């Protein structure tokens, strides 16, 4: 084998735990662990299945959960080599009886706990994240959503109110708002598309926009009013009832909410039934942990942003 190949991605203790589990159940028979699974290799008579290799690719972030992995690809071959290496290392460790060491026993127990916990979470989440539950939560959110108006407008931002008034007179006299936006606007985000802000609801805009656009109708020029970077002139292009978020657009948020909700309920039930004693207390004045960026949303399916304007 080439020595330049990367070190196996899975932790050694976990690899050893998997190998030990395989020995205890007599791994290497003809029965596939998953329907349609295919044997990819054998290591000392024990089968390496395609599902084992895919699982390693997922663990290393090379493919997503459920994504296919072409068995003729370089990624598959690399992952197969790494799984084989894991099996060889684990087998040699057992030959040397390294698993008897008390430290190794703790690592193996921790690895087994992680695997079993992941299996329980996968099973629990699979029960919660069903198409029926996704559609049910989506429909509930649509019933509860408060509809407002969406506005489409174009924007020109200039340094002073006087400059805005001058451009406003040019537009009123027949000048092209789009051309003037491209020529004069200080807003780099919109000037090159004629100042187009797209559709938005005023609740996502700064307060000055909400006040200026109250009751606005298509074709109306609004401004000048102060904004970041100067003063703005808007031309209202369209006003329509707010469009509901499509199911496919909301799906990732719904799946995330259902997942976190079910895991939280599971952990609460387990903690209620268990006797958990925390023996080490945090020191006085110690900083509180910062929630991760992907922490669960505080409410079901928060509405996605409805415009790119800032």
Q: Can you walk me through this structure?
A:
Helix 4 (102-128) crosses helix 9 (247-273) and helix 5 crosses helix 9 (247-273). It is built from 9 helices and 6 strands; from the N terminus they run H-E-E-H-H-H-H-E-H-H-E-H-E-E-H. It is elongated and about 90 Å long. By secondary structure, the chain is of the alpha+beta class. The strands form 2 sheets. The chain has a 4-stranded antiparallel sheet. A two-stranded antiparallel ribbon has the order 1-2. The two termini are 55 Å apart.
Short description:
This protein has 310 residues and is an alpha+beta fold.
What's the topology here?
Layout: H1 12-24, E1 39-43, E2 46-49, H2 50-59, H3 74-95, H4 102-128, H5 131-144, E3 149-158, H6 161-172, H7 177-184, E4 196-200, H8 207-213, E5 221-227, E6 230-241, H9 247-273
Antiparallel strand pairs: 1-2, 3-4, 3-6, 5-6
Helix pairs in contact: 1-3, 1-4, 2-3, 4-9, 5-9
List its traits.
four-stranded antiparallel sheet; single chain; 9 helices; disordered C terminus; alpha+beta; elongated; 310 residues
- Count, helices: 9
* Low-confidence sequence ranges: 1-10, 22-29, 298-310
Helices and strands, in order, run as HEEHHHHEHHEHEEH
- Approximately what portion of the residues adopt beta-strand conformation? 5-15%
Taking Cα atoms only, what radius of gyration do you get, to the nearest Å?
A: 30 Å
N/C terminus separation: 55 Å
The order of strands across the largest sheet is 4-3-6-5
Number of strands: 6
């Amino acid at each position: 084998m080439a020595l330049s190949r990367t070190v196996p991605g899975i932790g050694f203790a976990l690899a050893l735990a998997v190998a030990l589990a395989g020995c205890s159940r007599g791994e290497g028979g003809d029965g596939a662990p998953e329907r349609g699974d295919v044997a990819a290799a054998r290591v000392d008579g024990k089968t390496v299945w395609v599902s084992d290799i895919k699982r390693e690719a997922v663990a290393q972030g090379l493919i997503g959960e459920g994504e296919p992995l072409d068995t003729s690809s370089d990624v598959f071959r690399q992952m197969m080599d790494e799984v084989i290496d894991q099996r060889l290392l684990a087998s040699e460790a057992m030959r040397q009886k390294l698993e008897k060491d008390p430290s190794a026993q703790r690592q193996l127990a921790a690895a087994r706990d992680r695997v079993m916990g992941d299996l329980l979470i996968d099973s629990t989440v699979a029960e919660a994240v069903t198409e029926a539950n996704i559609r049910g939560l989506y429909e509930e959110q649509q019933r509860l959503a408060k509809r407002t108006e969406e506005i489409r407008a174009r924007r020109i931002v200039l340094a002073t109110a006087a400059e805005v008034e001058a451009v406003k007179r040019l537009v009123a006299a027949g000048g092209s708002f789009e051309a003037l936006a491209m020529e004069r606007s200080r807003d780099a985000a919109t000037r090159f598309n004629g100042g187009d802000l797209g559709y938005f609801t005023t609740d996502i805009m700064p307060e000055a926009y909400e006040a200026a656009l109250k009751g606005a109708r298509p074709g109306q020029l609004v401004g000048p009013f102060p904004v970041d970077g100067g003063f703005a002139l808007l031309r209202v292009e369209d006003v329509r009832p707010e469009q509901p978020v499509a199911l496919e657009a909301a799906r990732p948020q719904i799946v995330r909410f259902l997942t976190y909700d079910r895991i939280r309920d599971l952990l609460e039930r387990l903690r209620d039934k268990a006797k958990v004693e925390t023996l080490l207390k945090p020191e006085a004045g110690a900083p509180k942990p910062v929630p991760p960026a992907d922490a669960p949303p505080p409410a079901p399916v928060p509405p996605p942003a409805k415009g790119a304007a800032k």
